[in-house]
Design brief:
The protein has a 7-stranded mixed beta sheet, with helices on both faces. Strand 3 and strand 4 form a beta hairpin. It has 158 residues and is of the alpha+beta class. It is built from 4 helices and 7 strands. The chain has one domain: 3-Layer(aba) Sandwich (Aminopeptidase). The two termini are 27 Å apart.
Length: 158
């Protein structure tokens, strides 16, 4: 049984490790990715406000096995950016990724957003497959992209 809950300060270390482990597996432990963001070790300081939230997923033992969040995307009206969807290796391939996207899209709608935006990398083919199956459409790279190493960009009407 999976449990979703908002991230707390106590989750910072586990979530940062999850993000870094995943990026390293796909050769994305490079400058221009969240791997080197100063705030990654203190994500709870950033999230937890009306325009941005982050949720962790716990397994039956209370272990954090995943996380997903959103934040206002200033470049597009009424748009939230789907952020930091990561899963532990033990949870991959089980359909949880689809469930997590549905969960966060509901949270975006509750917050009043009309569109979801996300950026990813061509190395993350499994993630891209999930995004496309969930209805995300690829767009041109926005000029103001923060993570310069990201090379694939998607949107979806909520």
């Amino acid at each position: 049984m999976l449990k979703y809950r908002e991230m707390t300060e106590a989750d910072n270390e586990a979530v940062a490790a999850l993000v870094r482990d995943n990026l390293k597996q796909f050769g994305l432990d490079i400058p221009g990715t969240v791997y080197f963001d100063e705030g990654l070790d203190h994500l709870s300081d950033f999230y937890g406000r009306d325009e941005r939230r982050y949720f962790v997923i716990e397994d039956a033992n209370g272990t954090v096995i995943g996380g997903i969040g959103y934040a206002r995307f200033e470049l597009m009206a009424d748009t939230a950016e789907l952020q930091k969807l990561y899963l532990a290796d033990s949870a991959k391939g089980s359909g949880i990724g689809y469930e997590m996207i549905g969960f966060i899209e509901d949270k975006m709608r509750e917050a009043g957003y009309k569109q979801s935006y996300l950026e990813t990398h061509d190395n993350l083919q499994a993630a891209i497959h999930i995004y496309e199956k969930c209805g995300y459409k690829e767009i041109e790279r926005p000029k103001e992209v923060v993570h310069s190493a990201m090379d694939r960009f998607f949107v979806k009407a909520l």
